[in-house]
Amino acid sequence: MAGTPFHRCDLGMTPRYFGTVKLKVSDDAAGQFVVCLDGSDITHMQGPPYGPDFSYMVPDGAPIAARIIPMKFECLTINLAPPKFCDVTEWVPATGTIDGRQISNPDGTNPAGFNSVDLTLVFGGDCTSEDVTPAAFTVTTLPAGTAPSVTSVTLVSGTTYRANLSTTIPANKWTKICFDPSPDEDCVCIGSLPGDVQGNRAVNATADAERLRQCLDTQTCAEHQGDLNRSGAINPRDLIRLMDILNGAGNFDPNNLQTLPLSPC
Ligand SMILES: [Ca+2]
Ligand SMILES: [Ca+2]
Ligand SMILES: [Ca+2]
Asked: Could you list which residues have their CB under 5 Å from ion ligand 3?
């Protein structure tokens, strides 16, 4: 900490004296600092070079000490944010995405679902490409349950990386994937709710079937919403598969009226 010299400033007829205190910390400083200043100490102004000969400080001839009102400062609490880590500028799938497709065929074959996320990074602070490792990710689910883990990270291009999960994200839950754990984490939440063509956190036979009919008409729905059977196309077979998901069929438990909680992101 360093103090700058006091400055004299004339405001009307009354000289005022101001002080500035500068707090200098190292680049990686973080946490809470409490700065307390004692009452003004004027004793040092009574000796050289502030003695009677120091006329600039005593323009009206009165001792400088007589015109300083000792002050008592409240302690100042400063919370320093930790150093900047990497930041994620884009996640794919985007946070809030809900996969409405089946998680397997009704007979249990062809298990499928989101099993990776892509993240585009801006490096900063202490964070470099070497920090983009599986250990930098945490994965949880809501409702709580067994979550996949990040098993590997591959470079897609530029500063876009793919975090590969150990399994597909579980059905009827949010999966929350966070990079760059404390103190500067970035998270994405992806849901899986088979039958939720609307992506509104609720499976409803009437509303989601109606939405799928619109998808068939307009072909403007995202694949993860309208391609219930994961065929790569949205067509009437998806309407049949939606019925299987709603009512239960083979390995499918009935998913009508299933809901997701609010996203944890
Ligand atoms: Ca970050
Ligand atoms: Ca819905
Ligand atoms: Ca399809």
From this structure: 227, 229, 231, 238
pLDDT digits (tens, 9 = 90+) for 122-162: 998 778 899 899 999 999 999 999 999 999 999 999 999 99
Residues 173 and 63 in one domain: no
- Domain membership of residue 264 (yes or no) is no
Six-digit token string for 54? 């120091």
Beta strand 160-165 with 116-122: parallel, antiparallel or unpaired?
antiparallel
pTM of the model: 0.70
Residue 56: DSSP 8-state: G
Q: Is residue 183 part of a domain?
A: yes
Q: Find the mean pLDDT for residues 97-103.
A: 98
* Centre of ligand 1 from the C-alpha of residue 128, in Å: 12
The span from the CA of 34 to the CA of 12, in Å, is 35
210 and 160 share a domain?
yes
Residue 263 lies in a domain: no
Can you give the residue range of the structural domain that contains 14? Answer: 2-80
Ligand nearest to the CA of 233: 3
User: Whose atoms come closest to the Cα of 183: which ligand?
Assistant: 1
Centre of ligand 2 from the C-alpha of residue 119, in Å: 27
Q: CA-based diameter of the chain, in Å? A: 100
For the stretch 177-193, pLDDT in tens is: 999 876 678 999 999 99
Q: Which positions ≥6 away from 162 have C-beta within 8 Å?
A: 116, 117, 118, 153, 154, 155, 156
Nearest ligand by distance to the CA of 101: 3
Q: How many angstroms is it from 100 CA to the middle of ligand 2?
A: 9
Structural domains counted in the chain: 2
The rounded Å distance from CA 183 to ligand 1 centre is 8
One domain for residues 192 and 159: yes
Q: Determine the pLDDT at residue 20.
A: 62
Mean pLDDT of the chain: 83
